[in-house]
Amino acid sequence: MNPKKLPIYELRVELSDALKAGNRIIIEAPTGSGKSTQVPQIVLDCGNAGPGEVVVLQPRRLAARLLAKRVAFERNEPLGGEVGYQVRMEKHVSAKTQIRYVTEGILLRQFLSDPQLRGVSTIVFDEFHERHIYGDITLARALRLQKTRPDLKIIVMSATLDAGPLREYLAPCRELKSEGRMFPVEICYAKKRIDFRHHPMWEAAADAFEQAIESGAEGDVLVFMPGGYEISRTVEAIRGRRCARGFAVLPLHGELSAHDQDAAVGECDRRKVVVATNVAETSITIDGIRIVIDAGFARIARYDPNRGIDTLLVERISRASADQRTGRAGRTAPGTCHRLWTEQEHVARPMQELPEILRHDLAEVVLTLKAGGIDDVENFEWLEPPDPKSLARTLALLADLGAIDHAGRLTAVGQKMVSFPMHPRYARMLLAGQEYGCVRQACLIAALTQGRSILERNKGAETRGTRDEVLGEDDVSDFQRLMRAWSFADQNQYRVDACRRLGVHAGAARLVKPLYQRFMKIAEQEGLDINARAPLDEDLQKCILLSFSDQVAKRRDRGTLHCAVVHGRAGDLDRDTVVRDAELVVAAEIREIEGRGLNVRLNLCTAISEAWLDELFPEDIEEKTEAVFDPVLKRVVSKECKLFRGLELQASMKQAVDPQQAAEIIAEEVLAGRLELYKWDEAVETWIARVNCLAEGCPDYGIPAIDEEARRAMVQEICLGAVCKRDLKDRPVWKVVKSWLSAAQLDLIDKQVPERIKLPSGLNARVRYEAGQPPVLSASIQKLYDLNETPRIGFGQIPVVVEALAPNQRPQQKTQDMKSFWENAYPMLKKELKGRYPKHEWR
């Protein structure tokens, strides 16, 4: 298609004028309108952005490369000349480059080496509606830079965008909108729910392809699948259908070679089927597509609290993503979209994806911000602030890894970690691998912890026996066995039959290899020495410890798998771990399992030594002496303990304690109900209730209320000198409690809130005092005769509740208005009770 016929080209004059008038622009244009390829060229060619590079941020590496190649072709330039691209571990740029497509993290890292971004005139944020975390952060850094570089232009582009919050964030800014051109697309839903466990999604996609082709649908086909494995199976399934003869069936995802990617998006001499990940959803446009088949899934990164990192999970896409995919069929002519889910299922899908800032691990981006001189990340100018708990957890992890100190400042180790384009946990692992001569093993461990375990559980005694025979036994680390299992699978080319004998998941093992190779490539690029020899067990154990020191655990005792974990947590060693006999371990995975209550399971464990904690983390070792209550001895003891990040490593007890500390601790046990003050009885509680009744009912008389703080002070005074349960038997409770008031105040209590009130009938009736309740006087109806006014205490300011009892002493009526009681309630009660109790007096 001629670029000048693309819908976005209609905005070229408005865009040029906007660049001349201001430095912040929002462009909203639908998928396929040409914004990703044409806007950077318009910016460069109009001359209103000033001298310097136009840097275009893309969420995906594949899109950055393909878009750069397309724009270079349109400008009749070689790739890497006027137009280039830069992604992790790959770049094609030169001194001549004026338009540079980059993935979002690249520019954020450029801020570290050049905070002023010299030579950059314009930053274009493409596909911003996807709300990737690095896009958010880089936009915030760019806005901050504009304060000192007002010449820097910022353009934010999106296919579908809630522009309100972004408009406010970028204000003042100019908004431009292209309506685009979209042909109608017919949406076909599955007639009934497809169970992909029994009918794989690739077979369902092949069925939909066959249905579409046999019904006479025209044009090329785009099939959406969540990842590389599903794509390869889909390619096989479609090629196996008779109706696919004459079609070129091509995969498209980020792990393919550049040649294979180009083949998928380029021109073809026959009809083609492109099977792609969500990279084809918005970032790139493939000409000729008129049929879309959508499995409705994508691999989405979410924070996994078990591993403490982001994990790619296969999840249902949102309705907004489904709409984007559907639109791919109507770019050049009317089309159809076959959704492999029902219309009812569609309604249940979320409207949009959560922004990454709310579902991602923040460790890598926070470390990058720290390296960029932004120490106060809590008050950073976030477009959408992260969850405070998530941010606090991130800072704690970075401190545990040694990347920041306890004041939140970047350390020398943290500065080294920033250069590794990976999660800080694994950056720390590779640095440790260099120190201990196990970089190769560190790369493999990092790869093994990214996805599902390659060793299947509960495979039976025969499989366990074969596994032990082939892999050998080990009591040092679960990773030793895991690495041997992966090597076995790799040597056997991931054949399902060979892997099944050992209970190895062939598919999961296959996915480890590209990750392993990627980590090895990063290690080589950062100048690390790739060891040829296997390291000593101790060296590998220390390497693992440095990467997972936030998950150190200590066995409670030899007879149990229960462990205490640093930072006040607890859990149980997994029953399949090989290090069940170790006293101290570090777990690479802490998994929460729902069941009867919440069980915390420690997996992928490695045995460690206390001496290593002293050696590697001297600042996190604390030795302290404190007085504590021993529940077994029922006494306060002096405890000397050694702690690592709150985890007790050693402890010894002595009986000599400070009397004041002992009194406070014994008092806490009493107040918590675990110890008893024998002479603090119901009479004491009643007296306290009387005091509080007068204090609350007659505040002008200055009687101090006895609240929880006062109780605590009283109990502490009573317990002074006591160090054990036996010492509480003869404590002088009344003396201490009544010392709360002066002699004159005690006299007021006796007179104004009396224990008994004399009734006209001659009965000396007891008054009940309860915390938070008005005082209550209970008497049988016959004893209440002639009591025509409600009794009052506390200088006549506190009315007493009168509880009228039947002759059997059961309550019949409560009142604070005796006159109304005799006039209204009593006649009814008399009628009811007189027949039951004829021998009693009834007036």
Automatic annotation (TrEMBL):
Q: Which CDD domains match?
A: DEXHc_RHA-like (cd17917), SF2_C_RHA (cd18791)
Name of the featured protein: ATP-dependent RNA helicase HrpB
The record lists the organism as Pontiella desulfatans
Residue span(s) of domain Helicase C-terminal:
208-373
SUPFAM superfamilies (alphabetical): P-loop containing nucleoside triphosphate hydrolases (SSF52540)
Tell me the organism's taxonomic lineage.
Answer: Bacteria, Pseudomonadati, Kiritimatiellota, Kiritimatiellia, Kiritimatiellales
| Pfam families per UniProt | DEAD, HA2_C, Helicase_C, HrpB_C, WHD_HA2
Q: Give UniProt keywords alphabetically.
A: ATP-binding, Helicase, Hydrolase, Nucleotide-binding
Molecular function (GO) terms listed?
ATP binding; helicase activity; hydrolase activity; nucleic acid binding
Residue ranges occupied by any Helicase ATP-binding domain in the UniProt entry: 16-179
